[in-house]
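Worked example

This section walks through a single chain of length 101. The input is the sequence exactly as stored; nothing has been trimmed or padded.
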Amino acid sequence: MSKIISLPDLVLRRTKPRSFIEWKTLRRWEELTDSERSVPGFLLRLAREEAGLTQTQLALKLGVSQQAVAQAERWQSNPTIGFMVSWMRGCGRELEIEIRT
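Given that input, the structure is written out below as tokens.
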């Protein structure tokens, strides 16, 4: 006996990270899935780019290497809240975190 799966029951998950360009475009079109909307590394990169800073310029502001900035901007990165606060300040922004229950 086979089971019929309805579309609301079907949940697709990405197994491969999106490129930043694809993510940025889908974000602008409001077409990202819930889990993709808040990818920390891509949000950090977006803030840096919108501030008009290169990785090297931001690294100097943060007192880290350019490689550390590049690593933090990856899809898989897991930066600390303190690092993200410093990053946003370096980009002339504030970090807000909202916890929903």
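What to look for: The chain has a mean pLDDT of 89.
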